[in-house]
């Protein structure tokens, strides 16, 4: 029996790199960074539908196949995910 895992990529939202996060995701457009430091983006859900997405400062953004897959707090990130060496 083989053990397999899905390959996610991650980038941390620092509170100042919102446009870079949105561009990196590929299926989102940067909207603004709010006064509370949260990132606001619009995600393309297909067929012309846009959905608002909010990411808190310090959270890790996950992508799979150049699409937003989820977000996780900085506290939970090392518990839930393992970064492969040399990536």
UniProtKB/TrEMBL annotation:
> Per its UniProt entry, which superkingdom is the organism in?
Bacteria
Name of the protein: Uncharacterized protein
What organism is the protein native to?
Streptomyces fulvorobeus
């Amino acid at each position: 029996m083989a053990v397999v895992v899905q390959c996610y990529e991650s980038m941390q939202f620092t509170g100042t790199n919102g446009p870079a996060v949105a561009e990196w995701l590929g299926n989102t457009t940067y909207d603004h960074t709010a006064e509370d430091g949260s990132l606001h983006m619009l995600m393309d859900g297909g067929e012309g539908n846009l959905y608002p997405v909010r990411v808190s400062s310090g959270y890790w953004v996950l992508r799979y196949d150049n699409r937003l897959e989820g977000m996780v707090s900085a506290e939970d990130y090392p518990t839930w995910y393992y970064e492969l060496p040399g990536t």
